[in-house]
Amino acid sequence: QKEVEQNSGPLSVPEGAIASLNCTYSDRGSQSFFWYRQYSGKSPELIMSIYSNGDKEDGRFTAQLNKASQYVSLLIRDSQPSDSATYLCAVGPGGGYQKVTFGTGTKLQVIP
Amino acid sequence: GAVVSQHPSRVICKSGTSVKIECRSLDFQATTMFWYRQFPKQSLMLMATSNEGSKATYEQGVEKDKFLINHASLTLSTLTVTSAHPEDSSFYICSAIPGGMNTEAFFGQGTRLTVV
User: Fold this and answer.
1) For residue B99, what pLDDT band results from cuts at 50, 70 and 90?
2) Is A12 an interface residue toward B (CB < 8 Å)?
């Protein structure tokens, strides 16, 4: 059973702070990793994808991957109230067939 | 990013009737689409993988005769919930992958199904 684990939260951070979201996965053969943002009642929106160890930055978002530790994280700098949502970690086998497994999500609350 | 359109966004139906949900890739061809179901405060659960021109692959525990999937073209997949019951009420979401060098999945807007 492939598992993706996330702390359900809620994670509360003040506006302007750094929010750190964590995810661990059980399948050591996983090759593709994604972070999605989901607002209540809406479908997920892709924020970041990462495929190799290290950091990947895109604007205020940084994804970090450590395959040896089977750990992937998302940092959100200068958090804004509009970042308040549930963040889903998704892990896939790589290659052209992306049957990903989703974590249960971490609810983030950015307090003005 | 790529655009996936899902219709309808919200539907209410009577118990025992069938409901069809459409998922379209608007600016790319998708040989593979995925159908998910999400209950309140839970994560997305993959129901089935829809393959253009062939039978869908269903996840364990998903009744293929109840959830009919048709992937008739490279831009359209449909999910039909047959003989719907109140326990089928959920948020149904499709996703598609443009393929090639792009391996990220893009989601439709989702369909909120309520069976009364």
Assistant:
1) low
2) no
pLDDT at A59 over 90: yes
**Is the minimum CB–CB distance between A46 and chain B shorter than 8 Å?**
yes
Q: Does B105 touch chain A (CB under 8 A)?
A: yes
**DSSP 3-state of A17:** coil
Residue A33's closest CA among A92, A82, A109, A77? A92
Residues of chain A positioned with their CB less than 8 A from the CB of B46: 99, 101
What percent of chain A lies above the pLDDT cut of 70?
Answer: 94
* Phi, psi angle pair for B4, to nearest 5°: -120, 125
d(CA A106, CA A108): 6
For residue B104, give the nearest of A46, A97, A103 by CB distance: A46
